[in-house]
Write a structure and sequence with these properties.
By secondary structure, the protein is an alpha+beta fold. It is built from four helices and four strands.
Length: 137
């Protein structure tokens, strides 16, 4: 799911070994009864305020059948000055280029905990600045 037709066009040009459904829509307004075997969200939840991230998480979970998988990777809050600087720089760039209003990361581990979502696998990268999860519904 992507709000940019141009980005979807770029993704569709790639040869993929499986069927992929590309949807040009804002996740916050997308409605469907369809279930997807897998959901992938890479550096996506950080585009929303915490409350919106929580609502998007609920929505993404609803898109999967029992035993569906969600592959999630995103930045996580860090006390390191270099990570804070990098994150601020990225948010300022995306504010200018894409009109992203958010300037602070949602607390993804807390959101998952509050929703009783327990990752099947979890791993930290880039000095604990990036986290990845495999979530099984």
């Amino acid at each position: 799911m992507e709000t940019s037709k141009k980005m979807i066009g770029i993704a569709q040009k790639r040869t993929l070994p499986m069927q992929v459904n590309f949807i040009c829509e804002d996740i916050r307004y997308y409605q469907t009864e369809k279930k997807y075997d897998a959901v992938l969200s890479f550096f996506f939840l950080d585009l929303f305020y915490t409350t919106e991230s929580k609502n998007v998480t609920i929505k993404l979970m609803s898109f999967m059948p029992k035993n569906g998988l969600w592959l999630l990777a995103d930045f996580q809050k860090s006390k390191k000055l270099t990570n804070k600087w990098m994150l601020t720089t990225m948010y300022l760039f995306f504010r200018i280029v894409s009109k992203v209003q958010v300037m602070q990361l949602p607390d993804i581990p807390l959101i998952l905990e509050e929703l009783s979502i327990h990752p099947y696998k979890y791993k930290l990268f880039s000095k604990k600045f990036i986290c990845s999860y495999v979530i099984k519904k």
